[in-house]
Automatic annotation (TrEMBL):
The name this protein goes by in its record: Uncharacterized protein
Subcellular compartments: Endoplasmic reticulum
Recorded GO MF terms: oxidoreductase activity
Entry's Gene Ontology cellular component terms: endoplasmic reticulum
GO biological processes: steroid biosynthetic process
Lipid metabolism listed as a keyword: yes
InterPro entries reported in the protein's UniProt record: NAD(P)-bd_dom_sf (IPR036291), Sc_DH/Rdtase_CS (IPR020904), SDR_fam (IPR002347), VLCFA-Steroid_DH (IPR051019)
PROSITE patterns: ADH_SHORT
Domain of life according to the entry: Eukaryota
Species of the source: Ciona savignyi (Pacific transparent sea squirt)
Keyword Lipid metabolism listed: yes
SUPFAM superfamilies (UniProt xref): NAD(P)-binding Rossmann-fold domains
Keywords, ordered alphabetically: Lipid biosynthesis, Lipid metabolism, Oxidoreductase, Steroid biosynthesis
Length: 197
């Protein structure tokens, strides 16, 4: 979002933590001189009614780019039977349902304006079956498949859908491994990855 704000685009932030959202919004506005809008919503608890509320909030806005990059992973690789039920639920809700819900919220406006870009954060973990992160891998395979299917569906409306499928990026999701975070060549920083994505 910083790279977009740098280029003068106004930003809408959606997350569950109001204080963090407000802090980030202030930083973006002060650093880049753009406007921000925050929507406080835990994506693990999206319902059709909440999705409709978000749709209503943004219906009059000219949203040109949607970036679906929220994600839930395991704390570390483990068997599915060892993962807490609440984590399994969150992973499905955030990694799949939220992508579909947020896309459905912005797509009508993009189709009406005949332009737009949707960027979905998938993962290289979705390329092949991945034991020990089986559910995460499956959710990311869904994101990539959904993105590619939608790309063809909306191309005639001048809407582009991009699926990013990196391996590891140095974020909180890789904190469990000092090996992963030891090499910027194999595990780039978010800034480095965004620059080339």
């Amino acid at each position: 979002m910083h790279k977009l704000a740098e280029r003068g685009l106004n930003i809408i932030l959606v997350s569950r933590n109001k204080e963090s959202l407000e802090e980030e919004a202030r930083f973006i506005e002060n650093a880049y001189g753009v406007k921000t809008l925050i929507i406080v919503q835990d994506l693990a608890f999206l319902t059709p009614e909440i999705t409709e509320e978000i749709k209503s909030q943004i219906s009059r806005l000219d949203i040109g780019i949607l970036i679906n990059n929220a994600g839930v992973h395991y704390d570390c690789p483990m068997k599915l039977s060892e993962v807490e039920t609440s984590r399994l639920h969150s992973m499905v809700q955030v990694n799949m349902n939220a992508v579909v819900a947020m896309t459905s919220a912005v797509l009508p406006g993009m189709e009406q304006r005949k332009r737009g870009l949707i960027v979905n954060m998938s993962s290289g973990a979705g390329w092949l079956p991945m034991p020990m992160i089986s559910l995460y891998s499956s959710t990311k395979a869904f994101v990539d498949h959904f993105s590619q299917s939608l790309h063809y569906e909306v191309a005639s409306s001048n809407i582009h859908v991009q699926s990013l499928t990196p391996m590891y990026i140095s974020t909180r999701m890789t904190d469990y491994s000092t090996t992963l975070n030891s090499s910027r060549f194999f595990t780039p920083t978010p800034d480095f990855y965004v620059k080339y994505a």
